[in-house]
Write a structure and sequence with these properties.
Helix content is 32%, strand content 24%. With 135 residues, the chain is α+β, with helices and mostly antiparallel strands. The longest helix has 26 residues, at 2-27.
Length: 135
């Protein structure tokens, strides 16, 4: 049972780190008026998972090419979750990240200006999943 408890402890630690980064990123966020879509991204690199937030001045429901051109990035882009994060599988990590963002939005801990119409979560291998759509 020790292995299960260790993994659960590691996941809880990652959840807290992710939550703190999202909240910290949002606290002093000044988003230009032309930005209508935000994407919370996650990618796996050799040193661990990295999470990031990018803003976009266009959005298309039918394809993901709007993600190719980032018009806005926060100061602390590509925040590393460290090598320990590699113990978590890609799909499980994506679920942890997405669920945390949804929780923070639904609990009104994240505030965005009215020009933000779409918020998505995407990993480097997948299509963006909309977590908020005001269009």
């Amino acid at each position: 049972m020790q292995v299960s408890n260790d993994k659960e402890e590691e996941i809880n630690k990652l959840k807290n780190t992710i939550k703190q980064w999202i909240i910290r990123s949002n606290e002093n966020l000044t988003i230009p008026n032309n930005i209508i879509a935000l994407n919370y991204g996650i990618q796996r690199v050799c040193t661990g998972y990295e999470i990031y937030l990018s803003g976009h001045d266009e959005y298309c429901e039918d394809h993901d090419t709007w993600l190719l051109d980032s018009s806005f990035e926060i100061e602390e882009s590509f925040f590393s979750l460290g090598g320990e994060s590699l113990k978590i599988g890609r799909l499980e990590m994506m679920d942890i990240y997405r669920n945390m963002i949804i929780h923070l939005i639904n609990s009104h801990q994240l505030k965005y200006p009215t020009n933000i119409k779409v918020i998505s979560v995407c990993d480097s291998n997948g299509y963006p999943e909309l977590v908020q759509n005001k269009i």
